[in-house]
Amino acid sequence: MTPTPEEPGRRERKRRQTLEHLARTAAKLFESLSYEAVTMERIAEEADVAKRTLYNHFSTKEAILAYWIDAELKRDLAGLQGRIARCTTFRARIECVLHASAGWCEQHPQHLMAYLRHRLLSVGAPGPQGTRPDGSDIALAWEQLIAAGQQSGELRSEAPAEQLATWFHHLYLGALLRWLNTPGLSLEGEFRAITELFVEGAASK
């Protein structure tokens, strides 16, 4: 039987629904029990799926955590679009995103170290279909903001926006690591520092 054109779309929607169901189920367990206490077997049981189904979609607990955090970031970024559009400079736009990110991270510090470990170890490796190999939708946000800054003449255009976004994303991850490992450090302050470093280095001369 020849597949109809709609079938791949339905399969993809079902796959995404399964990913989201598994991630939401895991997130509830992470929040109620702690990340360390939750096992893949418990996630499969709570989600009412076979362990094989869970492993077909996520190879590790860290991958589920990363998918959930990335989905949270994507939702928050969508809600920021109006505020970002009202910003008139590249610095103001990227500071808007970083401010929102700091707020979320400060509410979920217990999950961030495992998330960062997974992201840093999987740099360049393909993630679930439809995701970026260098991390999350926030990495795509850096690229879009940098491209807009290049178009406005605020940032130099010699390097591709994707390359500059990768460099900024590494600064972002480094700031998070410093904050997690240094008691009393201000995450907002770390983000201001990397913004200053990046803008001064990438500014159009």
UniProtKB/TrEMBL annotation:
Keyword Transcription in record: yes
Domain of life: Bacteria
Domain (HTH tetR-type): residue spans on this chain: 16-76
Coiled coil: none
Keywords, alphabetical: DNA-binding, Repressor, Transcription, Transcription regulation
Pfam families xref list: TetR_N
Entries under SUPFAM superfamilies matching the protein: Homeodomain-like (SSF46689), Tetracyclin repressor-like, C-terminal domain (SSF48498)
Keyword match Transcription: yes
DNA-binding region: 39-58
Name of the protein described by the UniProt record: TetR/AcrR family transcriptional regulator
Species annotation: Castellaniella hirudinis
